[in-house]
Amino acid sequence: MGSTDEKIREEENKQMEAPKMVPFDLNDFTVIKEGEAEILMHAKNEVFFNKTQVNNRDMSIAVLRTFILKYRREHEAMSSKRMKTGPKASDVSAIKEEATMDFVTHKEKSNGDCDVSKEISQDEASSILEEQSSSLAGKGHGELKPPRVLEALSASGLRALRYAREVDGIGQVVALDNDKVSVEACRRNIKFNGSVACSKVESHLADARVYMLTHPKEFEVVDLDPYGSPSVFLDSAVQSVVDGGMLMCTATDMAVLCGGNGEVCYSKYGSYPLRGKYCHEMALRILLACIESHANRYKRYIVPVLSVQMDFYVRVFVRVYSSASAMKNTPLKLSYVYQCIGCDSFHLQPIGRTVAKNTSVRYLPGFGPVVPQECSDCGKKYNMGGPIWSAPIHDQEWVTSVLADVKSMKDRYPAYDRISAVLTTISEELPDIPLFLSLHNLCATLKCTSPSAVIFRSAVINAGYRISGTHVNPLGLKTDAPMDVIWDIMRCWVKNHPVKAQPPDQAGSVILAKEPVLQANFARAVASLSKAQAKKVARFLPNPERHWGPKLRAGRQITSKHVSLLGPEAVNGINNQEGEEPPTKRKKTEDPTPNS
What we know:
This protein is an alpha/beta fold. Helices cover 42% and strands 17% of the residues. It has 22 helices and 17 strands. It has helices spanning 2-16, 54-85, 89-111, 122-139, 158-166, 180-192, 195-200, 208-213, 231-240, 254-257, 262-269, 279-296, 330-333, 396-408, 416-427, 439-446, 453-462, 483-496, 507-512, 531-534, 563-566, 568-578, and strands spanning 29-34, 37-42, 149-151, 173-177, 201-205, 219-224, 241-251, 300-310, 313-322, 334-340, 346-350, 352-357, 360-365, 382-389, 437-438, 467-468, 476-479. The protein has a seven-stranded mixed β-sheet with strand order 5-4-3-6-7-9-8, sandwiched between helices. Strands 11-10-14 form a three-stranded antiparallel β-sheet. A hairpin with a 2-residue loop joins strand 8 (300-310) and strand 9. Helix 2 crosses helix 4 and helix 9 packs across helix 12 (279-296). The longest helix is centred in the N-terminal third of the chain and has 32 residues, at 54-85. The termini are far apart.
């Protein structure tokens, strides 16, 4: 065992050593600057880099700044509380044990041999105990060290370099990659960014899963931004984060998460997606439910602080905590979704419930079913999806803090306009309403003209319910109004704006055949416009340039079939450098025998 441990330490020490730089010609590279970091990118597609992810990186830096500030305040509050109350009995017993071991170790070092059964003297033990007790009362469990960050899939290292150079109070940033070319590029970029980057960022060639498993609870922040699904990294990631630390996770396999391949989504994330206008928010909630599932296996749970759908991916920021008792609340945060196949009606079925009796709480299965076999609005069947995270996906206090930080440093965020617009929209979302309705879908079901969003919002507010927009879809509406109220409002709208007769078996005809129970009031309500809308703040911005989206995986040869992803300029530039374009398909082997 001893020799094995020594070998492992030697391997780790080799990785920790300063990387030996391979000589390179600067003329072969293009310098790309983002924020305060600069990287060298080769003309060939050797190392993955996507300019579009500047939104992702800017958002991560903004959240990381807020996290470091809050984490420091939480530690100070805990330390001051310990100073007032003094050390706990468990802490004192631990100190006694540690004092005993320290004394034995000291004797062993000084005398060369030691009788372990021999007890230390009372005076010596008391002095050590007093010294360590005062240390515990004064510092909590020691001074707060700068937070360590693990970027599990670093590629060029741009994200790690930006963290090190732009985030104040950050500690060591460990950048991992399992590709030798990427690690060489990352180390080259670390050296290219000067002394600050060299002192704070270290790059290792390692499998992220193995590295995180062998470094449990060592990092205050773990960042997962893979090419595709993060599902294979989640189990080790939730173990590598310290208690109260932050896990940042991106998923770019939106076709899977949004219902294109439901069986694949179930195999990767343990949830079945539904295809609807809310599919991108459902993707966020599926990812959160998956992370919670992995955390629960180790008596841990998550608290989402920000969940974002931007461009072609979803990104979640969650705090990870350890508590066997709090973990029992997980079934209360998860729900199945019933989606009508004929209309826009959907209903949530919570997995669990609680029953309180005196001071005890019992955890029981949720009541069900919440829907009949056929939709009560249109008479069609339901599709069932999930389970999804049905608890809040944002912490509004965090969102406010992050948005304030972004606005105070707008010059330091290259994608300021986009991330401030997204955060502004998130700050106005109803935090306790899962999923949303699409006004255009409601009208498409009834084959009617669409009321303006202000008129529809006013009708919902005048009926006594809440309503807001969503950052996922500019036409999406979150509301706590039940579906029968929503359809009553639409029936009243259709009475004032008649539609052509439709076949009686269609969902819209069945809905309109019923008389409204609620008489909608379409008078404009004061709260029908959000503060951002009233101030005409931009909330949904167009892409800054063409071909703003996913890019080709590193190592793949760029050919003419990638024009839709990269644009003709990029494809032509590569082909001109390499000469003739290689054929996209291998030619069929000709029959060597001549035709007779």
